[in-house]
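Lab meeting, item 3. Inverse folding demo.
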């Protein structure tokens, strides 16, 4: 309050002095009972009223400007607070889903935090703070409480690199739950996945669930992958064009489990050879 008053008087002191002198002049005229000064008395009252109104408006303006600044700062603080609360709620929900998964899983799980992301030129990896010292191996599936994240691509003692489903080289055998149709999940456009090699003869609708297939050599069956958002038949193509919304939010994932999945011997060999060829 004191700050803006000081600034106001610094900028407008000459005008204030002038207004005070004018007001004093009109006051002296108004106290004079001479008949010849009555016109000036009326003009003085009108001018004084106008000046008071102007000064009040100026004071109100500076007061509102100061109040506006306070409100903007408070608004910015509230926006930041809301963002922090939403992030905490999202992380809390992820942890609840992961706790539920850990209680229900029949496969040993290694917990890890996401400590890095790489997204460039069609590549999409995440780095976890768990490595071979914790039991992580190349080819191990990585999951959250909502679904499949990807496959361990490289590992050292303390960290591992995970090729996610959004990576351009990712290929995961998948299944449409409702249609009982198998296909292949690959990275799609605009944050979506695409399901390939599903015949046009199958009925596929938005909302249909997609999960890992028993045909996969890399991951156990039944892990959620996502939900169909669009399915179309293209002229001259024997396969459907299917867009899938990932079950995992790759932009906000903060923790995951590495599954110590025991691959069937032949499937394990084929899967690991495929991973080596894609490196």
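The presenter then showed the designed sequence:
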């Amino acid at each position: 309050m004191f700050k803006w008053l000081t600034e106001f008087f610094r900028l407008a002191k000459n005008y204030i002095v002038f207004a005070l002198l004018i007001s004093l002049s009109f006051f002296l005229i108004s106290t004079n009972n001479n008949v010849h000064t009555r016109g000036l008395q009326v003009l003085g009252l009108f001018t004084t009223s106008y000046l008071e109104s102007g000064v009040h408006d100026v004071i109100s303006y500076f007061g509102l400007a100061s109040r506006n600044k306070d409100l903007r700062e408070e608004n910015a603080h509230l926006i930041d607070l809301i963002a922090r609360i939403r992030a905490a709620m999202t992380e809390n929900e992820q942890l609840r889903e992961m706790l539920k998964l850990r209680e229900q899983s029949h496969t040993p799980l290694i917990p890890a935090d996401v400590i890095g992301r790489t997204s460039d030129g069609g590549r999409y990896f995440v780095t976890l703070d768990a490595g071979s010292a914790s039991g992580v191996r190349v080819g191990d599936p990585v999951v959250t409480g909502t679904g499949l994240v990807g496959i361990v691509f490289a590992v050292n003692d303390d960290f591992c690199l995970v090729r996610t489903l959004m990576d351009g080289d990712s290929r995961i055998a998948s299944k449409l739950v409702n249609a009982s149709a198998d296909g292949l999940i690959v990275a799609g456009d605009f944050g979506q996945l695409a399901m390939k090699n599903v015949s046009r003869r199958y009925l596929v609708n938005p909302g249909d669930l997609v999960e890992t297939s028993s045909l996969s050599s890399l991951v156990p069956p039944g892990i959620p992958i996502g939900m169909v958002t669009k399915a179309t038949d293209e002229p001259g193509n024997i396969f459907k064009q299917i867009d899938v919304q990932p079950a995992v939010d790759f932009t906000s994932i903060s923790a995951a489990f590495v599954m110590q999945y025991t691959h069937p011997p032949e499937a394990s060999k084929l899967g690991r050879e495929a991973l080596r060829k894609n490196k």
